[in-house]
Every structure is written in C-alpha cells, then in structure tokens.
Amino acid sequence: MDVKVFQFNGCKKCFNESLLLKEGAKYKVEYVSDPKNWKGEKVDVSVITGYLLLGDLEHLQNIKNNSNKVIAYGDCTATGGVFALANQKGHDVTPLVNLIEDSNSVHGCLGEIEELQLAIEGKEIPKLKSLCQVCSRKATCDYLDSINRQIELEDSETCFNDLGFLCSGFTATECKEKCIDYNTPCRGCKPSIDRSGIRMMAMFGTLAGNIEIATEHNENGATDKLADEDDDVTRSLPDMVGNFFRFTLPTSGLPKGRIPSSGTLLEDVFIGRLIEEVPLIAGLLGGAKSISLTLKFIETYEKANQIEVSEQTKKYREELLQLEKELHDAIDKEDATKYKEITDNIRAIAGNMNLSNVFFGGFKSQINESDNFEDYKTHIFDVVEGTYKNGSVEYSIDSEGVIKEIKITEGL
Amino acid sequence: MAVKEEKMEKSEVESEDSNEPRIGVFCCHCGHNIAGTVDVAQVADYAKTLPNVVKAEHYMFMCSKPGVQMLKDSIKELGVNRTVVASCSKNQHGVTFAKAIAEEGINKHRHQQVNVREYCSWVHKKEQEKATAKAIRLVEAGVNRARKLEDVETRRIPTTKAALVIGAGIAGLRASHDLAELGIPVFLVEKNSTIGGHMTQMNKTFPTLECPQCSISPLTNGVANHPLIELYTNAQVKAIGGSMGNFEVDIEIKPRYVKDNCTSCGDCSTNCPVEVPSEWDSGMSMRNAIYKAYPQAIPATFVRDKKNCIECNTCVNICPVQAVDFSMEPETKTVKVGSIVVAAGYSEYDPTEIEPYHYGQEGYEDVITQLKLERMLSPTSLTNSEILRPSDGKIPKSIVMIQCVGSRNDQVGNKYCTGVCCKFAIKNAHILKDMYPDTDVTICYIDVRTPGLNFEEMYKSTQEIGVRFIRGRPSEIVRNPLNGELKVIVEDTLTMTPLQLDADMVVLSAAMVPPEGIGPLGSKLKVLRSKEGFLKEFHIKMNPTLSSKGGIFLAGAIQGPKDISESVAHAGSAAALAAAPLVRGYIEKEMLVPTVDYELCVNCGICKTICAPAAIDIDEDGKPIVNKIACRSCGMCMPSCPTAAIQLINFTDDQLYDEIIAVSGGGAVCE
Amino acid sequence: MSNCETPDDYVKERINNIVIFMCNECGQGSANTAGVARMAYDAAIRIIRVQCTGQVGPIQIMDALNNGADAVACVGCCLGACHFFNGNVISMHRIKLMKKVFKELGYSDQFVNQYTSRAAEGETAVGDFENIIERLTTAITEKGTIKDGC
C-alpha cells in the first residue's frame, strides 16, 4: 500500500506529525508540500492536511480522482480548525467533507497519529470515552456566581466550569494532547457531538443562570423583555466565537461572519481573540514555528508590563527554542525517529504540541525534575491595554484584553 | 434510608406500536370562525399530500358529535393511529379529541392539536391568503409532530394515608387538626419543647384585644389529645426521601431528660440552683436549667437544658415520681407519610445590624422590640404586666415606637412590607396609653397600613385616646452620656419639622423574617425559596399553599409575613390540598417524563441543578435518575445537557426539529 | 436587492416568517387571549407551543433560523412568575449569549429575543410581536438579514 500526504494551507503541524507514519515502515509514504503543482498519479490512500479554501476544490478533485481513499487529518481539514476563525471576517475556510463527499476524517489539533494509522489501514477507530470521564476534576455543575476569564487554581479536583472558567470538556472526546492536564481548559478540538459549540453555549448559559442579566421594559404591551445592553454575562465572555467555536466554526451551524477583514488570513484569526487565550492559539497554529511565535507574543507583553520571570523559566524557554531548531532539521531530513525524540522532549516541557503549559510569567503546571517550581507556576496576570511589538509580531489589545490589531510579518 | 427509585432506561418507553404511522388530519371550519379567513379545503388538500397521511378532510364543527365520530371512524376503518385536528386551541378542545381516540383504544397522547383559530384565522382576518399559507405551515408542523408521537402512560400511584406537619405554631396546629378531622393520621413535629409558637407569646391580639392563650387553648388541647395526632416536641426533621404520595421521613427527637410520668408539679424547677434568661420570654424573665417554658405549656412535661445544667442532681432526687432521667438519649423515628405540610413560622428580625438604633448595645437596654414588649405586658411576666424600663425598673414617661424596622428598607433588612407591624404597634400603643394615661406614646411611621375590617377603627380610636403619630423614619437614637437619657431623632415630614423626641423607652417594630434553620430545612425538603428567603409558593395568586414540589404544602408565615387570621386561613387551605390525595387513596400522574441515554451522558450533573422540583438525582456512579412522580415535565433539562442525553418524551429534540422545519418553511439558509 | 422600489418594500419582502416559541402557561395563554379578542397582528408570526421557554435551546433557535425563519423569539411568563421557577430566566441567559455571538460575527443581534407576557392580557402578546417586527425592521435596514450576503 502506498500513502501520500498533501499539505494545503496552514501551519503544517499535522503534516509534520505525519512523518511518524514512516516509523515501522508499514507502507510507503511520500510527502507532497505543493499539491497545486502535483501532476497526479494513482495512489492508494491520500491524506490531506492543512486548511482548505474554496479555491482548492480543483486540486482536491484531482487528488480524489487518483486515490482509492481520501482522509482528512487534523481539525483544519476535518472541521476548519483554528484557521477557520478567519471565517468570522468573511474568509471561506471549508472542511474537506463539504468539498469531497466520500472522505474520512481524523479530528484533533494536533491530529492523533494513531487514529490516522487506523484510518489508513481501514480499521475502525474504537469508541472513546468523553474527556470528562478521564479528567481528574469532577463536576457538580451548580449555578455559577460569576464567569471568570482567569482563575487561581487551588486544587486539582474542582471542575473548571464549577469555578466559572469555561471548559468544553463536556462535548469533547478523550484525546492525546490533554490540555486539561496542564491547567488549560479544553476548547473542543475533538468534539463528541455535532454542533458542539452551540450545545456548550447552551450549557454554559444555563450554568450562568443565577448571574444578574439586563432586562428592560417593553413599551408595547408593558411587560419585560431581554435587554440588548452589555451586562455581567456578556462582559465576562468578550470572545464567544474564539472560545466556544475555536475549531468548528464552519460546521457549527452559525452563519458565515461579516466582520471586515484586517489583513492576511492568519492575522484575521487573531483579531477579536482574548489576550489570555493567545499563548494557546499561537501554540495551536504555529506549526514548526509555534514555539518562537508563542514566546514572541508572551515575552513582549511580559517586558512591557514588568512581569517577573524566573531564571528557571528563562532556561526552559531557551531549551524549547533550541528544540525548535532541531525540529526544523529533523523535518527537513524527513527523519521520523529524530522527530519523535524531539517532540517528546518538547512535550516534557511544554506539556503537548499545542504548548498548553506555556504562559505569561512562566508555566502553568509542574515540569518534572525542576526544583522550586512553585516559584514560577502562574495562572493570573493583569490585562493592560497597549501595543506590543517583538520582531515579526506586533499586536494591540484594548482595555478588555481583546486583540484589535495585529501584524505578523514573517511567513508561517 | 432512601426510597428506591428506578433508573429509567431509554428502552422502557420505546413505542410498542411498531406499525407505520397512519395519520388522520381533520380541518375544522368552526362555522365562519376559521373558514371565513382560512381556505380550509385547501389546507386539507395539502395535508393529503404529506407522507403517512391516510386521511385528510375538512368539516363544519369538529367538536360536534358527528365531528368527533369522524376521528373514531378513521381509527376503526382506516387503521389511523395518530390524529391531527386543525381547529381551536389545545386548552379548548384538545381534551375532547384526545378522549375520543382513547375511547377507540389509541393512547390519548397520540393526538396533536393544531391551533388555526386563535393563532391564525381570528388574528389575520384581513390577510386571507397569508392566513391560509400560515395555516398550511402549522398543519404540516402538526403532522410532523404526530408522526413521531409515542404512548404516554397514566399511572395510578397509591398514597400513604398519613401526613407530616412541621412546626406546631398556630398554622401547624390548625393544619394538623384539620387533617386529623378528615381521618388522616398526623405526625406533628415541633423544634421547641412546647407547642403554640409565637401566638402564645403575645399578650393580646388585634383588633378584639383577646388573650391569645385563651383563643388557642382549645386548639392546643385538641391537638394534644387527638387520637390521630402523634406529637413530637424537641424534635426536628432530619432527612426526607421519596416523593408526593409516598415520603419517608426521619425525625430526630432530642432527649428531654424527663420522662412522661412527670406530673408538672414544678418541684425540680423551684429547687434548681441555675438561673438563665428565658428564651421564650424574650429575656424578660429567668428560668431554671430544668423548666417548663411557661405555666400553660403543652406538653406539660418539664425539660432539662443540658448545656446550663451543673448536674447537682437536686431535681433527680427531689422529683416525687422519679421522672428525671439524665441518661435519656436522642431518638430517631422514621415515619411514612403521603403529604408534608411545612408550618415552620417566622423569626423576629434582629435590629442589631441597624447601627443608629443601637439595639443590644450597652447603655441602650431600653431599646426593645415589640415581642419583648408583648412579654412585658403578658400576665406571667417578670414585671407583673407593668411596663418597666429594663435599665432602672421605672415606669417610662415617654415611649416611642419606630415602625418599619428591617422592612421597606433598601440598605439593611428587607425591601418588603411585613404588613403586620402597623397593626400590632397600634394595638400595643392603645394598651400602653390605657395603662399609663400620663405617659407620652408616639409612633413614628412612614405609612400607616391597617387594611381589613375593624383595623381602621382601631387606628382611629388609638389616635383619639392621645397616641401621637409622627410621619418620619427616625434616623438615630441618641443617648446623653451624662444621664443616660435617650432621644429619638426624627423629621416630621408632614410639618417638615426636625424633632428630638424624649424616649424613656423605644420599641422597634421589627420585621417578620424567615425562621432560623430555614436554609437546611429548605434543602432537606428540596423546595425553592423566594428571594426574600421564605419558602416559595407554587403560584402567588392561584396556589399560595403549594410549594414548588408536589406533595409539600406551605402553611402560615413560612410562605411570607402574615397575621394570625391569615395564617389560619392559609393553613386550612394547605390541609385541604394535603388531604386530597390521601383521602382519595391515589395520585394519577401522566408519565410525561424524560429518559436518559447513559451512553451519551457525561455525568456532569447539570440536569440535577436545573430541575426545579428536584426530580433528578445523581447516584454514586454519577448517573442521573429521574423521579417520575416528582417530575413536572417542563423540559428544561434538555437544552442544558451538553450531549442531548436527556430527552423529554414526546418533546424530544428530534420531534421539535420536525415541528420547527415545517413552521419555518424548510430550506437551509447557510450550509 | 430585488425589484424593490423603497427600503420599506425591501424590508417587507424579507419579513415573512418569524418563529415564536411560546410557553405552555403564560406564553400561549396570552396568544390565546389575543386570538379570542380578535387582536390583529402580522401573519409572519408563527407560534410553536413548548412546555417552558427553558426547554428551548440555541440548537432549536438555529434550526429555525437555518431553515427559513427570519427571526426567532421566545415568549414566556413574567419574571418571577415562571411556573417552573426560573425557566424564563435561564432562557434569557442562553439567548443573550446567542445575541453576543451574532454581534461578534458582524450581524445584528436582533434576530433572537426573549419576551414575557401575561396569560390574561392579549395585548402583551401582541405588544411582544409588534416589538419583534420593529426590531427586525431596524436590524434589516441597518445590517441586512441573516440570509443576505451568505
């Protein structure tokens, strides 16, 4: 059997991960990083990675006509992924199933290589548990007193949602990346149900049921009605699209966005996002440059707002940057074994390939074999309005911490 | 102790009717009412084209005998197993048609009523074309709904013929008595060592100025001696399980340390060396560590206050019948009842938090509440019914009453008007002025509220005997540190004059607030509380004596501040409602309840949080269990569930979707 | 824009299907009373009867909007009077979040609303319906419908 992996648009994180298909060498694997100029030859299984635009249809047709099986690997191809947040500004990132009907999908951001292998071999992916069932925290789901954008974590048993801190674990499937293990709430990259974003919104709205909401008098008929003005509920969720629909915007059931575009597609992804979510988002879509991108976002903010960072943290960050260089090397050489070794080392510090553990002021959870880690385990920081610039990344946030402008000059 | 509930698996309610749906659609003209605006024939023609519709016709009056017969005939002749009638509202004739199909052996829940009259023909008289188009949409939605309707069982649940009454104040006593007179055994549980509640603490009741001890005495004796009433004093409800018609209640009885053979001679008390302020007397007298709350207390058995007892054993030795027994232990009794009446009463608001009034502070002993005043006036008081200043025992030359203490206040206390304080302040002012004609009695009020027969007259006569009424809310009570004299600072807002009233004694008309311990009691009962903290009634107008949970009824001030006559009426209503299912012997309930798909459930527990009648419980494995009897079929659990695991029968997401796409016209907008 | 001569025509052409979820108690009660009193309102209004507005979730609302509805509203009992304690309040919270999402996507937030009514007063239902149409008209005039520009 032979397999070809095609990378369309985006960060290449899943494309790089598919290097692991070469390990064990069960079948012949070839990598096509420029599918638009691919001639077209018969192939058993075609794996598509990266996000798709409507204009990619003809190239996809070409691939489909030449393949026995087409598989979407990773959220970008399967459901639109993080890049689909640009659809909020009128872009048209589309899932593969909307363009090629007869295709399979492997979800996740990062897509799980084990699931891809099963899909390639034609085996069924076993039914998985829900994320809540493997999480160490237990939910009671009582009504909330407030919705919180940042929380100080005091134990590892209380569910994030019980603390007013949105976690979409209820509508997510058990996964490998497990952001929740690094004190980062789930944002639903492997949904367990259709329209998971809307269902999570319904649930969270229910939990918020005791928080005061703005109502006003309806002049016609003299009764009360829901008011449109901002209140405690809307003020504590300034970015619903980014938090509830981060990976599934095209399949969410919502209409396409009509906010005017501010620049490139990548920049459009970031506009409107919240500063405390930026490290994770940058980690999600930085691909092989995710470490340097994420650290650029973080370090410029820390410097401008005098957020102390310990020596140990600086050391770990240096290590990560070094690992990133080695990663490029391994990818260029298509060296699967080296790739595995390096990504394991990255996961040991940053938690997972989404860099869930990396945050303002340090790291979110314990890194093994570190002394005095308590010094720099951090979760809360001040939101300060301003413009932050660091080399190829420049962004401005308003007083609510929402990104208003951004310029990323180096290509990703 | 929990009553076993069944887990409702999804398969239990799978439709037994595995035959394909055969729908009969009947469009009513209703004379000109519908046909005058909506083209009924066109609607029926359209309905014929819908899948699974085997019969579609229109008729002049569907609710008439021949009209109803059409439904029945279609079932008999064409095997119709679901019906849709497009006519008036479900409230009007939904039952008529449901009953008709039930008579032909089809479950009555397989009828779908479509309202094309109140919702269509009557409100769009001038737009006939649009009205017809809308009626077509509504009928298609009805057909879509009918297609997936399932059988719903109506279950008859036998009830336990017994009732629990919590609280033996006037409301609880009345409710117990009324229930017992209907032949229902009653378990009456009272937290204190004596029954009668706040009413027995009063000196006189308005407007007749009767002695409340005398008024209540036939009732307290009646209850204490009634063969069907079992009285537990010094007792509290510890746990409640089950649901309406069949509750199981654990009652914890604290030891009295005095056995039932006590003759109430009082020797123990007379010889007890310990003296503490009497709670029942609001601190206006002293009691001993072994005591009876007041002379006429029922039960007459004495009780020992273990906390203050020094265990000198004098009482043990001196008791002529050896009734004192220090070894008594707490007891738990489990009872099975069909209805619960909550009559836990109220507490008097504690004005300590209103700092400018200095209640409870040193130097301000003469600032008291109305309840303390009642105790002073009472025939058994320490002061021999004289009004004496707590500070120096002298008769006050000036008494100022302050109204709305803890009521009608946005900053402290509560926003509501208690509604009772004006009446009892006026009553007490009248009594005081009669007793001490030379003493100045002043009432500072915001509004005087004396509705009802005889109260306006009482207000007038109180003014006539010289009680002064000043419209103004006092800002402060000040004390002269040199001679301890108190002055009440108030502005007379009618004459716009600032005043400083001499006040040898200040009486605060404190609000009625929810009783102590209401929080734990409310959670044990799993009933909802109003935002003011009282137990919330089912409907403020139509059902003020039913709580948010079936089988639990509210009697008296526990539902909101009220006076004695209102409490008695309220309690009578609660007793009648509580008795109904017990006397009848069963409850009939439609099992319109949710089912849970345990494969989809993620054990988050939100369904339990959102269920208002507390009909969903989470077991040790985290699985939700629906109490089919307590469930009120509201469906709120459905959108709350993140994975749509819980679905209300005949209102599932799938069924609602079918109705929605038909009403909204079908055809996707964006992807 | 199609062959419309005035902005009013444009709007009228676009309001022909408004789905209203009315609760079993006050919601449908007020609509019934309005019907009995023969109060007239726009034929675009279509009523779906639910147990409680708390039973209606964003999934149902999006189903309606994605299948032809121009706007959706829930009409429940007055605040504090919900027969199931707080279904109307919970529904308000969910709808508030939906409004926010629409706003974030660049649409008007007037496509979904929650109202209250009184069973014995038909004018409260009609008042709610009129307000829905008023708001929808403003929304369409300012920002277009949900269907435009898809």
Would you write up a description of this structure?
The complex is a heterotrimer of chains A (412), B (671) and C (150). Chain A is of the alpha/beta class and 412 residues long. Chain A has a domain of 118 residues: 3-Layer(aba) Sandwich (Rossmann fold). Chain A has a 5-stranded parallel beta sheet with strand order 2-1-3-5-7. Chain A has a 3-stranded antiparallel beta sheet with strand order 12-13-14. In chain A, helix 1 links the parallel strand 1 and strand 2. In chain A, helix 11 packs antiparallel against helix 12, helix 12 packs antiparallel against helix 13 and helix 13 runs antiparallel to helix 14. The model of chain A has no long low-confidence stretch (mean pLDDT 89). Chain B has 671 residues and is of the alpha/beta class. The N terminus and C terminus of chain B are likely disordered. With 150 residues, chain C is α/β, with parallel strands linked by helices. Chain C has one domain: Rossmann fold (3-Layer(aba) Sandwich). Helices cover 45% and strands 15% of the residues of chain C. Chain C has a 4-stranded parallel beta sheet with strand order 2-1-3-4, with helices on both faces. In chain C, strand 3, helix 4 and strand 4 form a beta-alpha-beta unit. The model of chain C has no long low-confidence stretch (mean pLDDT 87). Chains B and C meet through helix 4, helix 5, helix 16 and helix 17 of B and helix 2, strand 2, helix 3 and helix 4 of C.
Features:
heterotrimer; B: alpha/beta; Rossmann fold; FAD/NAD(P)-binding domain; 5-stranded parallel β-sheet; disordered N terminus; disordered C terminus; C: 150 residues; alpha/beta; 4-stranded parallel β-sheet; globular
